[in-house]
């Protein structure tokens, strides 16, 4: 997804605007300058476009501040990564010399800039102050009030227009595979192992972002684009500006991929960060393969594999559909299993069950006494089912009342669908629709 970054000097309402755009209190809002030091980001869907919005620290030019160098470095990175910039200025105080310095920085960047003159709470203020905003030299200027939610919709409409429809999209028939995981679990070693095998290398190109490197490899006649990402740390451990944006790039790489390899360290598997990453992949409805690397350090004993498998099943019950493979990128142990597994998961993502078989399931399997209900004599009735187009697989069940369907019954349906066809490594989406 594309990135739209909010920049400006301190105390102009950047974080309040960020919270309004996201619809929740995601950023700390305070009158003290320099509260937002690290960038905060959130996903937004607007006008049919999906993008990240990033909040940045306030720029204080010619001001002594212990964090100023770090804040400016972060803002420069944010500008460099962005598809468009929302430049926030204070409508009560008007344009300041610091605003003019920031405007000059933004003009040099060559990125589309949208000026939000914030804190304009009435038309009289707007008529008096808006001319100063236009004097900064940008065409798109909006009078906004984060407090009263005015002007924000129009500003977002303009921002969405700045985003290209094909941002981060590949038009080829390649299978896109993202390697994600914590730092030092062996992602780059695994990528090098794939690229160094006796297969034809198609290309090595820099990815759409600075530290996501795309490598295209031809495996058995299939072009697979591997997206290598930086290690994802906990937010509390993100202190370096480059490291912060590598997290956003990792999420962008997950957005782009068809299949994600979540790589874990055999010496320290299934950490909370691993679970969050796996949850992110599932939420994005991507194919998922759990890869336990550095298996060369584990004893060659079948019981060790059984113990690790049980640990994965016990601690990640929401990913029981994902295949598990134990490898060593360094020694090559079991590495040969991965290419075929990737191809199989991608095939499963596109697998379809004929409508006739689905409705046989409805008639034969779902006709039993214990259908979910509301406890007042109303029970769920399923009339027929169909599979929607596209990947991952999505099934629509037409029913009398979708609200009668419980989570446990949806899991029951998912298990039945997985018995009908091989959906290993693939999330299944189930929708309940009223027949009328």
3D structure, described in words:
The protein is of the alpha/beta class and 436 residues long. It is 34% helix and 24% strand. It has 12 helices and 16 strands. The protein has helices spanning 14-22, 68-81, 97-109, 123-134, 152-161, 187-196, 241-256, 272-283, 302-315, 337-349, 355-364, 407-420; strands at residues 2-7, 40-46, 49-55, 84-90, 113-118, 140-143, 175-181, 201-209, 212-219, 222-228, 259-265, 287-293, 324-326, 382-387, 394-399, 429-434. A 7-stranded mixed sheet has the order 8-9-10-7-11-12-13, sandwiched between helices. Strands 2-3-1-4-5-6 form a 6-stranded mixed sheet, with helices on both faces. It is globular and about 70 Å long.
Provide the helix percentage: 25-40%
Strand percent estimate:
15-25%
Q: Spell the H/E element sequence.
A: EHEEHEHEHEHEHEEEHEHEHEHHEEHE
Query: Which strand order does the major sheet show?
Result: 8-9-10-7-11-12-13
Global structural class: alpha/beta
Extract low-pLDDT stretches.
Answer: 30-38, 197-211, 237-242
What does the largest sheet look like? 7 strands, mixed
Question: Can you give the mean pLDDT?
Answer: 81
The DSSP helix count reads: 12
Q: N- to C-terminal separation? A: 36 Å
Radius of gyration from the alpha-carbon trace, in angstroms: 25 Å
Shape: globular
């Amino acid at each position: 997804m594309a990135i739209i970054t909010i920049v400006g000097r301190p105390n102009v309402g950047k974080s309040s605007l960020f919270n309004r755009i996201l619809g929740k209190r995601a950023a700390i809002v305070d009158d003290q300058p320099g509260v937002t030091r690290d960038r905060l980001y959130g996903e937004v869907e607007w006008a049919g476009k999906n993008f990240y919005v990033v909040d940045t620290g306030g720029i204080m030019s010619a001001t002594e501040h212990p964090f100023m160098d770090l804040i400016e470095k972060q803002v420069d990175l944010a500008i460099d990564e962005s598809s468009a910039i929302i430049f926030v200025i204070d409508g009560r105080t008007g344009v300041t010399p610091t605003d003019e310095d920031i405007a000059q920085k933004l003009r040099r960047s060559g990125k589309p800039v949208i000026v939000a003159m914030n804190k304009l709470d009435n038309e009289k203020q707007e008529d008096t102050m808006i001319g100063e905003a236009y004097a900064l030299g940008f065409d798109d200027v909006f009078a906004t009030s984060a407090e009263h939610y005015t002007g924000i919709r129009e500003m977002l409409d303009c921002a969405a227009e700045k985003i290209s429809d094909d941002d981060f999209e590949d038009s080829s028939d390649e299978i896109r595979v993202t390697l994600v995981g914590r730092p030092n679990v062996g992602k780059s070693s695994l990528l090098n192992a794939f690229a160094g095998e006796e297969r034809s290398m198609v290309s090595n190109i820099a990815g759409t972002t600075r530290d996501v490197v795309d490598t295209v490899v031809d495996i058995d006649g299939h072009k697979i684009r591997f997206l290598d990402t930086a290690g994802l740390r906990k937010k509390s451990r993100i202190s370096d500006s480059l490291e912060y944006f590598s997290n956003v790039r990792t999420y962008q790489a997950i957005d782009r991929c068809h299949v994600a390899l979540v790589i874990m360290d055999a010496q320290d598997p299934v950490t909370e960060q691993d679970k969050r990453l796996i949850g992110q992949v599932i939420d994005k409805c991507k194919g998922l393969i759990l890869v336990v690397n550095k298996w060369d350090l584990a004893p060659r004993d079948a019981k060790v594999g059984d113990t690790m498998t049980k640990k994965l099943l016990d601690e990640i019950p929401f990913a029981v559909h994902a295949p598990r493979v134990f490898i060593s990128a360094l020694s090559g142990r079991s590495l040969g299993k991965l290419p075929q597994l990737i191809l199989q998961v991608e095939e499963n993502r596109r697998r379809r069950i004929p409508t006739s078989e689905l409705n046989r399931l409805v008639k034969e399997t779902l006709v039993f006494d214990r259908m979910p209900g509301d406890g007042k004599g109303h029970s769920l009735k399923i009339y027929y089912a169909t599979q929607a187009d596209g990947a991952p697989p999505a099934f629509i069940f037409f029913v009398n009342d979708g609200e009668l369907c419980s989570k446990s019954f949806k899991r029951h349906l998912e298990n039945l669908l997985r018995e009908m066809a091989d959906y290993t490594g693939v999330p299944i989406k189930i929708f309940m629709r009223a027949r009328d």
